[in-house]
Specification:
28 residues; 1 helix; mainly alpha; rod-shaped
Length: 28
């Protein structure tokens, strides 16, 4: 896994968590 994949995976994970928390637009 390269750095770019790690970063987008982390962002997707955070985005999923914020969506579950009720703030889906935080990382859009």
């Amino acid at each position: 896994m390269n750095v770019g994949e790690k970063i987008s995976n982390s962002l997707r994970h955070v985005s999923t968590k914020t969506t579950i928390s009720g703030s889906p637009l935080v990382f859009k």
